[in-house]
Specification:
binds glutamic acid; alpha/beta; 9 helices; Rossmann fold; three-stranded antiparallel sheet; 10 strands; 31% helix
Length: 296
């Protein structure tokens, strides 16, 4: 089957992958591969304070161990400064950017958190001040002012903002399917706006539910018991994939299997809308006992 379907996994290497990241990789891989598409890997390491190359290399090793191979060369955001600069210059040429000197505290003091999800919406304080330094923001059209506000495209410290880099990269990499956690759902209008400004063709955006602990908090890199450093010592890759397939509704009963065995079962209609609770032990006690998995 030959298609132009191209998906991607775009992790930020700020620590070891946890089960939630694995679920994202698995769903995105299945989404692309079940349609005969390609699946690319982009390391989102523009935040040099938080990202580390050794985490990225570990992540690539983890993906291979899990049986989720990517196609083509890995794209590193940290190597793409010139590309981002060229695109930022284009926005500036259109008169769309301006410098902002507001600190986080200024914003907390001056704006009410967004009623739906507590985000702070930038009120446009510096829009017409004509500053010549600070963070760079982009003027959004009226319909985004209330819900998103003018957002940052380059930070005060010179780092590229996620929203800018992600759109440029997805477009230039020819991504047609953006699959990611629904914590990023609110970014879609900002990203679609940038697609329009640059004249890029938009991908399809798909968002999956998140993995949460029993307290209802989404898993994060601090939940050490769910990270692959621990899980690789206890389980086989097929046990982890099978467990996630079971929790995401792709299979009715738990069984250990590889990602490729899920290609036929994959369907977005099986994936629940609600976040997925997992207990502190993460995998059921029965999983892992038979394997005595020595590899890590
Ligand atoms: N790098 C982002 C993250 O790890 C994901 C970006 C995206 O998928 O659009 O949360």
């Amino acid at each position: 089957m030959k298609t132009n379907i191209t998906g991607r996994f775009a992790p930020s290497p700020t620590g070891r992958m946890h089960l939630g990241n694995v679920m994202c990789a698995l769903i995105s891989w299945l989404d692309a591969k079940s349609q005969g598409g390609r699946w690319l890997l982009r390391i989102e390491d523009i935040d040099t304070q938080r990202c580390r190359r050794d985490y990225a290399l570990q992540l690539m090793d983890d993906l291979q161990w899990l049986g989720l191979p990517w196609d083509g060369d890995v794209v590193w955001q940290s190597e793409r400064n010139d590309i981002y600069q060229k695109h930022l210059d284009y926005l500036t040429g259109l008169g769309l950017t301006y410098y902002c000197k507001c600190t986080r505290n200024d914003l907390m003091a001056s704006s009410a958190p967004h009623e739906a999800d507590g985000r702070i919406v930038y009120p446009g304080t510096c829009r017409d001040k004509g500053f010549t330094e600070g963070a760079l923001r982009i003027r959004v059209p009226e319909e985004l002012e209330k819900t998103h506000g003018d957002f940052i495209v380059r930070r005060r410290d010179g780092a590229w903002a996620y929203q800018l880099a992600v759109v440029i990269d997805d477009a230039l990499m020819g991504i047609t399917r953006v699959v990611r956690g629904r914590d990023l759902l609110t970014s879609v209008p900002q990203q679609e706006f940038l697609y329009d400004v640059f004249g890029f063709r938009k991908p399809v955006f798909m968002h999956h539910p998140l993995l949460c602990n029993m307290a209802g908090q989404r898993l994060c890199k601090r939940d050490k018991s769910m990270d692959l450093g621990i899980l690789r010592k206890k389980y086989l890759p097929e046990e982890i994939i099978g467990y996630l397939a079971y929790k995401t509704g792709l299979i009715k009963e738990y069984e250990a299997l590889g990602a490729a065995e899920l290609l036929n079962a994959f369907s977005w209609s099986r994936i629940p809308d609600e976040d997925i609770m997992i207990n502190g032990e993460c995998l059921p006690a029965s999983v892992g006992q038979s394997s005595g998995n020595p590899s890590s």
